[in-house]
Amino acid sequence: MTGIRSLVAYLWERVLRYAVKFGVVGLIGFAIDVGLFNLLRLGVFGSDHFFQGAIGAKIVSTSVAIVFNWVGNRYWTFRAHRRPDVVREFLEYVVVSIGGLLIGLLCLWVSHHLLGFTSLLADNIAANVVGLALGTVFRFLLYRFWVWGHHRTPGQELDEHEIEERVVAATLADAPLEDVVEEIDKEQADR
């Protein structure tokens, strides 16, 4: 039982804590994205322009949500891994976000233009359910392990290989993983 708790503690510290925070920021960003998308599609900001169409509305709504999410993720979710080169970090974030946007747009395009599902409900399902789910997995993995990965924060984290060696050694020695996690955290705090 101690081994399972140790594994859960290790996973919480390395991935799950970030996933929960990422989810909270993402839910707020999702509300911004879906709300703005629907306001544009319904013509609240005027009609007969590119941004009232499905693709234009999605580009605008996702772009606004991307900026909000960057601020939330930089200053809350991954704050311990912020880099001093803010411009480069933001550009990498935007590249990953555009990848997520393209995944959502592809889902919307296939549904709206290829399959002919043109209702507002079909557009929302394609863009804000299927596309968003696939794009979210893509973005989380690249944000966590590339944009704000441990290797990108000089001097703050132990080498991933070193951490894996310690976890394997503790497992083979039947030592509690909590002790290993505490030791790693202490060393990282001292750096």
Automatic annotation (TrEMBL):
Q: Does the keyword Cell membrane apply?
A: no
* Alphabetically ordered keywords of this record: Membrane, Transmembrane, Transmembrane helix
Output the GO biological process annotations, alphabetical, semicolon-separated: polysaccharide biosynthetic process
Q: Which residues form the GtrA/DPMS transmembrane domain?
A: 21-148
**Where are the membrane-spanning stretches?**
20-44, 50-72, 93-112, 124-142
Superkingdom of the organism of origin:
Bacteria
Subcellular localization is given as:
Membrane
Q: Which GO terms describe its cellular component?
A: plasma membrane
Matches recorded under InterPro entries: GtrA_CellWall_Glycosyl (IPR051401), GtrA_DPMS_TM (IPR007267)
Q: How does it sit in the membrane?
A: Multi-pass membrane protein
Family matches, as Pfam families: GtrA_DPMS_TM
Q: Which family does it belong to?
A: Belongs to the GtrA family.
| PANTHER family the record matches | PROPHAGE BACTOPRENOL-LINKED GLUCOSE TRANSLOCASE HOMOLOG (PTHR38459)
Return the protein name.
Answer: GtrA family protein
What high-level taxonomic lineage is stated for the organism?
Bacteria, Bacillati, Actinomycetota, Actinomycetes, Micrococcales
